[in-house]
Amino acid sequence: MKLEKIIAVRTSKTVFRDGDKCIKLFDGDHSKAKILSEAATHAKVEESGLPVPKVLEVTKAEGKWAIVSEFIAGKTLDRLMDESPEKNGEYMERFAEAQLKINATKARGLEKLKDRLSESLFAAELSSSTLYELHMRLESLPAGDKICHGDFAPSNLIVANDGKDYIVDWSHAAQGAPAADAARTYLLFWLAGEIDGADSYLSLYCEKSGIAKTEIQKWIPLRAAERLARGKAEEREFLLYWVNVVDYE
């Protein structure tokens, strides 16, 4: 296994290419259980029939855990958007349609999103009144039984050289309601400073899915609180704004 060609650097991990293999190498503080859980989640999504690179093995390299999967030759959608901004409308449609395919697929064996969100609220360092309100909101929302990617952004959609779409980075996947997944993606656009992109995405997703914007917006405070639990100081003020938005109607 050669760790020479870096293709992506993300928080706590580096992604390498070695021939026809993609190697996601994690920092040393990642536990064996966490890595095996991520690989198992990816494998469960793979078995659903969605277009994802196949997991090949979990191994160790340079004393660190790594997940090895198929390498997909192509470009990420965010790169295509940067290279051809005049096609952004077309690319955004492609993006929304890819997520709709994910959210139309029944989840099997994945963690329940509502359970994960409930746990994350206690780690978000919120007031007791806000926690109570968020828990009440969560209880009122549907559990859902579809696959939710949990981190779906243009950087996680690869357009292969043969024109096919492949979806990567399934570490946050769960079983839940499609509206909850759309709320997460909407927040990711905002966090990237792409406000127009967020609005364009939300309109397209609602139009194509038939889900009302208000149904997606109900999930935004919960997804913001979930992100708060990660403890990134530079995001806290922004996320607290969304946590405290109670009513969109």
Summarize this entry quickly.
This protein is an alpha+beta fold. It has helices at residues 32-47, 77-83, 88-103, 113-121, 128-140, 178-191, 195-209, 213-217, 220-228, 236-243; strands at 5-10, 13-18, 21-26, 55-61, 64-70, 74-76, 146-148, 157-160, 165-167, 174-176. The chain is globular, with a radius of gyration of 18 Å.
Description:
This is Phosphotransferase. InterPro entries: AGP_Transferase, Aminoglycoside_PTrfase, Kinase-like_dom_sf. Strands 1-2-3-5-4 form a 5-stranded antiparallel beta sheet, covered by helices on one side. The protein is globular. The protein has helices at 32-47, 77-83, 88-103, 113-121, 128-140, 178-191, 195-209, 213-217, 220-228, 236-243, and strands spanning 5-10, 13-18, 21-26, 55-61, 64-70, 74-76, 146-148, 157-160, 165-167, 174-176. It starts with a strand and ends in a 6-residue tail after the last helix. With 249 residues, the chain is α+β, with helices and mostly antiparallel strands.
Reconstruct the topology from this structure:
Layout: E1 5-10, E2 13-18, E3 21-26, H1 32-47, E4 55-61, E5 64-70, E6 74-76, H2 77-83, H3 88-103, H4 113-121, H5 128-140, E7 146-148, E8 157-160, E9 165-167, E10 174-176, H6 178-191, H7 195-209, H8 213-217, H9 220-228, H10 236-243
Antiparallel strand pairs: 1-2, 2-3, 3-5, 4-5, 6-8, 7-10, 8-9
Domain Aminoglycoside phosphotransferase: 15-190
Protein name: Phosphotransferase
Pfam families: APH
